Amino acid sequence: MYSNKQVIFDAERMRYPNTGLYFYCLHLGNELLKIANEYNKNTFFKIYADKDNHVFDYNPLYLNFNSFHKFALPNLPTGTIWHCNFQLTNYIPSRNSVKKVVTVHDLNFLREKKGDKQTKYLKKLQRNIDCADVLVCISEFVKKEVIQHCNVQGKRVEVIYNGNNINDTVVAKPLERDGLDLSKPFLFAIGVVLPKKNFLVLVHLLVHNNLNLVISGVLTDDNYKQEIIALATKLGVQDRVFLTGPVSESEKYYLLQNCHVFCFPSLTEGFGLPVVEAMHFGCDILLSTHTSLPEVGGDVVRYFDSFDPSYLEDLSRDIASWDISGEEKNQVKERSKLFSWETAAKAYWQIYNSL
Question: What domains can you pick out in the chain, each with its CATH number?
């Protein structure tokens, strides 16, 4: 069936570590490689990435990435399936003889960009949708936005949830930062520290208690970092706010296992992988009601009613006494099992077969 064909899994985005797309490609790619090896079909399943990037577990064949491919991709046999894993990519075959699966992670630019920039991103997404044979969205929310804002031309649109990135063989390790005492109760948030993640509002949750706040993730926007520090100083809680920068998987696991509440007030998410990771450990979780997050959290987590400072500072009077029961913790853990890379890989494999 596959002797004259090949599936190319586009992992070009793995050029950017410590990002959601990096880990998406890593975990989904490994599960797909596992299936390929199980059925002895590894000769036709290839990874489009830097061949010197030895991060996959199953020693894949590579179609080596090169930046000039944005102008002309290598010749691919008729019937090749190209799985594009970034909806705004420049690396996508235009030839009709190559079947294309395009995964759409989000339309966050609708909320982040305005005017000509928003139009530019929307045109780029539409171009890739025009090339696609099958569209995959990572949540029902994303599917709804794609259908609302793009012309899918009656094409097949599937929803395949992302999986859970937690590796239970990794040993948790305490995070060490100057002045941070993890024996004291702390709120925890993780993600790239940008305004869309809305971490600034969490500072208000410290006003009427003695909790610490730990925010981990790449600090790409120094202005936003300074805004968080300025608000903490204004509210007199600056000695209890810790912006740690990126943390290792071991350190992240320790923070998730030991935080008082995991907080994720993000304003725009296509899915929200950190929420699934927190659910894996049975965390008490406080989520934004924006975009896809209620779809992921369901009815086993808590939600912000508002981001108004007065509401948040009233909430700070109660949050220190929150206590998640054993039964509630188990319900949270059970929900995390809905999100599996193995399940996602099997669903993508069925799409490959159908093409």
Answer: 7-163+340-354 (3.40.50.2000), 186-336 (3.40.50.2000)
